[in-house]
Amino acid sequence: MDILQHHIQALVFCAQSPISIEEIQRCLQEALGMEEVLVSDVLEAVEAINERLKEQGFAFQIYAIGGGYQFLTKPEYQDTVSTYLKHKSKKKLSASALETLAIIAYKQPITRSQMEQIRGVGCDYAVQRLLEKELIEIKGKADTIGRPVLYGTSQKFMDYFGINHIKDLPQLKDFATEENSIGESAD
């Protein structure tokens, strides 16, 4: 099992994006000449790797993210890493691009005119920037007059925001605050 763990570590480490269990299985079977690598063996090995990393006090571990596995730093080091990334990142998304991205994420698949109706302003530039950054992608065409293009989030969006599925996005109820009231509550 140690050999399997070492090979899985190597695969997860060298993958530029989250590597799926299926990819891990395929690579291990081909590289090690194994007939079959069970999903349970891969999951058990990932768990053992994370346990070893935890015991030895490493600042990272393997996380399930974006439909696969990737080495990421632990949450307690978020401030340090975000400071580094803030200095490294020269081009950030504008407020309009972030608004547009949020609309796409929550309403996908969505057309540009639907986005503009929600925002109340044109979205051409924001959509173009999001496509360039590969945070959104074209999902097809709508079955309406003119067959407008439908947009949705990409796998890179999932990776960037650290979620596995769109359903993992925070819901509106997560942002709701209690209403302010004057006087005492009537119990």
Order of helices and strands: HHHEEHHEHHEEHH
CATH topology of the largest domain: Arc Repressor Mutant, subunit A
Apparent shape: globular
Q: What's the alpha carbon Rg, rounded to whole Å?
A: 22 Å
Explained architecture:
By secondary structure, the chain is α+β, with helices and mostly antiparallel strands. The chain folds into two domains: 1-77, Orthogonal Bundle (Arc Repressor Mutant, subunit A), CATH 1.10.10; 95-174, Winged helix-like DNA-binding domain superfamily/Winged helix DNA-binding domain (Arc Repressor Mutant, subunit A). Helices cover 50% and strands 13% of the residues. It is built from nine helices and five strands. The chain has helices at residues 2-14, 21-32, 39-55, 78-88, 95-107, 112-119, 124-132, 155-161, 172-175, and strands spanning 60-65, 68-73, 110-111, 136-141, 149-153. Helix 1 crosses helix 3 (39-55). The mean pLDDT is 87.
Descriptive terms for the model:
alpha+beta, 5 strands, 9 helices, Arc Repressor Mutant, subunit A, 13% strand, WH_DNA-bd_sf, globular, 2 domains, two-stranded antiparallel ribbon, cell division, 187 residues, 3-stranded antiparallel beta sheet, Segregation and condensation protein B
What's the SSE blueprint?
Blueprint: H1 2-14, H2 21-32, H3 39-55, E1 60-65, E2 68-73, H4 78-88, H5 95-107, E3 110-111, H6 112-119, H7 124-132, E4 136-141, E5 149-153, H8 155-161, H9 172-175
Helix pairs in contact: 1-3, 5-7
Organism: Pontibacter chinhatensis
InterPro entries: ScpB_csome_segregation, WH-like_DNA-bd_sf, WH_DNA-bd_sf
Pfam family, one: SMC_ScpB
